[in-house]
């Protein structure tokens, strides 16, 4: 690769015109043949992203990193997280936007309107202030303002035929230009106005034509840029010119024709680049140090080919305002896109530089492009290699022969053609066999195949027995043995037999056998030695012990665990390390030490495709990495600049009812504290660190001092809500880690939640007064209550005394009544008893009288018979009748009913209750129960029942059964207590 050194402009200015032209042409030819066209990565933003108009006419950036765009719908702002549109009062297109650091204003220009936005502390929003309203009536319809320029202490607003100059005192002066203005530029405090007819300098209040610019007459100037002590003049369609203040001459570059053919609309320059925005061909960039050109257009990934504005930001990257959309190009990034985002060759898997051809294997097939790539505007499209199609897995150069493994089998490659090796199937890769020149070990889907080189090509020699599967991870050790990793089965170490037909000395390592897991173990080579990469680090084989031993020296380089690292060693001995979400390079230092860089490539790590791919090399310093849309070209020794904006609090909203804006950050000195009414104490705090290279590239942690106990876990969220914060002082800390630049920034913001109205000092005074009044009223009330209670107690005592007296009287009367009742009951009982005795006596007397009368009558008859002495037999009969009569009276039951009635009267219906419960009792049973109740002895009962005592005992036994008495239960007690039990029941 050649390096282009341009002839210094001072020397170029001192040679003649023909020599100047010849030197320029030589430089152009060299640039076209030597440079490599790799494209910086870019991001496109569409109207769906920023939700505003299509066209973006100008771009600027504030100190805090916020971007401003002159958009058809107004002033558009973007801080890396949120877009917002600020319309003009007359709702016209904004044609220019300019941030002024001294006044912290954002000047804007539109149709028949120009002025500035500035932050309003009351509304916490941008407030527009019109300058054009100060113009006299005759100048207020001036059309479009296309530029805003600062020269000296003045600011110029360029219209089509006028320039309005605003001094420090705010007065507006109108400068009428005799011709239509094509461009206005401010350089070194001077204002230049370019027309097709003439170019003027505005000085001392008048327009003075610049000398030596006759060549520009009739040409439309689009930009005038300071360049190496001179002025670079960019025309729309007539190329570039250099101007030294006295004369002007063409400045011919290899891109001059492309600029002329595609009509330049705008231009910008830094110390490294000159960028030209065109109408038809997108952006054309010249890198000054190398002469390399970059072309960004629809083919290479730009969303639109018309560039209306461009701006280099603080990181050295470029913002493009397009006719439809916005793009962000990152030449300061450490990697390039080999062919551009729109190359459409598929996902990259393998690459190989063979002479002046670069082969690229993707999921779509095998492509080839010339190398170095032509450095011109015409996109170099890769050519399809004929004879091979489908998924490409590997491209290998073995002894000068190019072999390609793909889903269809193994192929040999010659130029733009591929030849299938007969009898091969899906092939992962190839490996030369140590000690067997001309033989290659091919790894296919089913195991290993030996390929033999003959007649300029390769044929299948035989299939190797012993392993019927394989993967692409197969490498040779220094002793000729082979290592193979399988993504699910572990790692195999083996040798080929001398006749190359079978596997010998096979060792198998897996989970439980010297490896932490079966899956995702990888084999790699570092400094000629084979290592096994696993989830817990690296291992190396010890041939003496035939065991895998931890390789702490390699572990210490990356200190990354959890997932196996894929290692690629560069030609200079540097180590690329990759796993999902992680990409780093370890630079090899003297003494075998390494210095790791893991952040330089952080913005591309999520796009890479390396699980089955094979990164390539374009020399000692350049690595080709596979990604989802082709190939990235990485500079192994890129010196990243750790730059980043500061994190800041973007806005604070109250969410109590609906979003109420309490604070907003706008360019300029900002408050670092805020007081919040208690009624608005539910907050949403928004924060951001402007980072434009990658979406969600910043991790944030927050901590509300006085409320939170510790820092939050990092996340990409850019806001935090707090609900119902108590009164008090808090400090909100936010820490932002820019993963791309490995920079951490921190900001703090003080928040004081004011007390509620009922918590203020005057409220407390009011409370004190109210308490004093309440105490006084309470004392009066308590005195009144005390007096009332004393009176109530006195009255209650009197009432209680009267009540007690009444109660005593009632109780006395009640006792008297109870006494009378008891007397009556006693008399009634006595009466019943006497009545019973009387009845018994009466009944007995009646029976005795009846019996005696009958005996008397019978005795009379007996006496008569005896006197007659006629018949002794008759007398004997009478005596028998008398005895029978006496016996009958003894057992006569005619008066039992009367006895039972009197008995029930005396003993509270005892017999009725007994019969009711025991209806099967017979007359003698009832009599026996009555006599038992009267507590008569067995002898007395035998006399009354006209039976023997033994018969009475027998009758008692039978009665127990009829009364269902348990064994051991006393019959007499049962009868005595029967009426008592009945009353209890």
TrEMBL record:
This is Two component regulator three Y domain-containing protein. It holds the Pfam family Y_Y_Y. Residues 796-872 form a coiled coil. Keywords: Coiled coil, Membrane, Phosphoprotein, Transmembrane, Transmembrane helix. Residues 692-741 form the Two component regulator three Y domain. The chain crosses the membrane at residues 21-41, 761-779. One of its GO terms (biological process) is regulation of DNA-templated transcription. Gene3D superfamilies: Immunoglobulins (2.60.40.10), YVTN repeat-like/Quinoprotein amine dehydrogenase (2.130.10.10).
